[in-house]
């Protein structure tokens, strides 16, 4: 791996991030920009509490991916994971009284992954902020970039489904296998962005909106007070990457969710969602024919390969994104 060049003109970059797509982009960006010049601002609307443990899936996906420790098949959790604790829980799940939610086994926490949730939960109980604990976890995994939760306050993404009422995000995503029709997305919070998030988004040379779900990954960050106004005020140096390629999401339910909530499930639909906060939308080669329609929404299209099969493709994408901002 070639080390990124540092120089007076090396840009500082803030990346608004969800989980897998953002993690893959960051894996390329750290090859192009010195990690100490990168700040990832990560969605915490997917966070959940299981077995009394605070689980932050998007933060962990980013940390594990950049540490080279992610399970490449699943895109979440650790590679070479073992599942003894989950198997041991089955004993209690079998005898749990009706109405109890003790010993949930629908959300898989691997034995090594549990250590991260133990540490995070214990440090939060000691009074540390999620920002501080996330910094400690990133340091434990040897990361050079700054990883920030979008807020230190509580924030729950809730999904209104046609068949199961309104449920927490992980109930929708994992328990119901995101295989149910979505009627609405709600953000339940009284949260503020942290000072470090506002500082990173205000001072970075370039802001990138990663190829994450615009509604449930980027949406929570945008729902925090002041974020959209800040992005609008510096729109010219904000570049978004479409997570929709050829009318489909590479991972997860973004395409179906966009359509169900009245948006177009194409790069044009993504352009409409971002045109006020970003000057450029990077779209995949397969969507080249949509460039005119994207331009007509008021955002400048940049067409290139966005499917990050490996870190080299991700690095090439990162170079193009940075060039598009300048
Ligand atoms: N996703 C699943 O589909 N099933 C799981 O059992 C599961 C467990 C899990 C544990 C830790 C973690 O950090 C992520 C986990 N995920 C699981 C992924 C997670 O639900 C999603 O990646 C995000 O919340 C959507 O961005």
Structure description:
Strand 6 and strand 7 (165-168) form a beta hairpin. The strands form four sheets. Strands 5-2-1-9-10-13-14 form a seven-stranded parallel beta sheet, sandwiched between helices. It has a three-stranded antiparallel beta sheet with strand order 7-6-8. The protein is of the alpha/beta class. It has a single domain, classed as CofD-like domains (Rossmann fold), CATH 3.40.50. 39% of the residues lie in helices and 19% in strands. It contains 13 helices and 14 strands. The model has no long low-confidence stretch (mean pLDDT 96). The protein has helices spanning 20-32, 57-66, 84-95, 111-125, 130-140, 169-175, 195-203, 218-223, 227-233, 254-260, 267-274, 291-297, 311-325, and strands at residues 13-17, 38-42, 48-50, 53-55, 146-149, 155-161, 165-168, 182-189, 206-209, 238-241, 244-245, 248-249, 280-284, 300-304. The structure holds ligand FO1. The site of ligand FO1 has 17 residues, from helix 2 and helix 6.
């Amino acid at each position: 791996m070639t080390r990124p060049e540092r120089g007076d003109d090396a840009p500082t970059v803030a990346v608004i991030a969800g989980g897998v797509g953002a993690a893959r982009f960051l894996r390329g960006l750290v090859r192009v920009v010195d990690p100490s010049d990168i700040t990832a601002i990560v969605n915490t609307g997917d966070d959940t509490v299981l077995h009394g443990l605070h689980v932050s899936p998007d933060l962990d996906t980013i940390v594990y991916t950049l540490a080279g420790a992610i399970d490449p098949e699943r895109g979440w959790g650790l590679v070479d994971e073992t599942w003894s604790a989950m198997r041991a829980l089955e004993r209690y799940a079998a005898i749990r009284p009706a109405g109890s939610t003790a010993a949930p086994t629908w959300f898989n926490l691997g034995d090594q992954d549990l250590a991260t949730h133990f540490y995070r939960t214990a440090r939060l109980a000691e009074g540390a902020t999620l920002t501080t604990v996330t910094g400690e976890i990133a340091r434990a995994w040897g990361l050079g970039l700054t990883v920030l939760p979008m807020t230190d306050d509580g924030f729950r993404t809730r999904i209104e489904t046609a068949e199961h009422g309104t449920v927490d995000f992980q109930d929708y995503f994992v328990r119901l296998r995101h295989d149910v029709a979505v009627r609405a997305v709600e953000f339940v919070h009284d949260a503020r962005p942290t000072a470090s998030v506002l500082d990173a988004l205000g001072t970075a040379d370039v802001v990138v909106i990663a190829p994450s779900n615009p509604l449930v990954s980027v949406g929570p960050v945008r729902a925090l007070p002041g974020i959209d106004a800040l992005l609008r005020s510096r729109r010219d140096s904000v570049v978004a990457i479409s997570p929709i390629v050829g009318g489909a999401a590479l991972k997860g339910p973004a395409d179906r969710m966009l359509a169900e909530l009245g948006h177009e499930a194409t790069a044009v639909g993504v352009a409409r969602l971002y045109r006020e906060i970003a000057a450029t939308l990077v779209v995949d080669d397969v969507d080249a024919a949509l460039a005119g329609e994207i331009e007509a929404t008021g955002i400048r299209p940049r067409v290139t390969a966005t499917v990050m099969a490996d870190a080299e493709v991700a690095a090439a994408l990162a170079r193009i994104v940075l060039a598009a901002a300048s």
